[in-house]
# Entry
Amino acid sequence: MPNLATHLRIGVLTYPVFVFLYNVVSTLVKKTAHLSAFDLALGYLAFILGSDLPDLDSTNAPLRNLTKVFLYGFAIYVFYDFLLEKFRAVAFLANTPEPVLGLIALGTSLTIGAGLVNMFLSLPMFYHRGFVHSITFGAIYGLLVYLFLKPLVENVIFVSVSAFFGVFVHLLADYRNRPWKAFKLW
Ligand SMILES: [Zn+2]
# Structure
């Protein structure tokens, strides 16, 4: 199985090809949307993270840990504002300075993220090359990226499709000897 470095290298090399094909298909269906440098950079991050993400279920610890800490970033995005607001409303924290409240909210977000990610990873479906190595997982990842970025990014479809194909490129690399397995649904 290719290691982290190989998967990342494959991700970097295939991203321009993916963008080219995306533009060709967009032109064919006459939906040419101009991709800005920001769209391309964001699509790149989603693609690169996707090209490593399936090995979240790997027994290879550095790679698993790297992927996990990246995912905690999503927890900050989901929980930080909500928690900060709640902490501001708590009576016994009324005189707490704002930077301290921010610190508590950030620490709590990361703790929740770590708890959730580790809980999910202990589920039986996360055995190596199980569900996380499937196009359904790629689609879920793409959907999450879509939901998270929709309020923030104009070209969110491109970034979500990049996320999905990042995972797909990972599957193709893993199953290069049996490429049909890259299309397995779970
Ligand atoms: Zn893999």
In short: The longest helix spans residues 61-89. The chain has six helices and no strands.
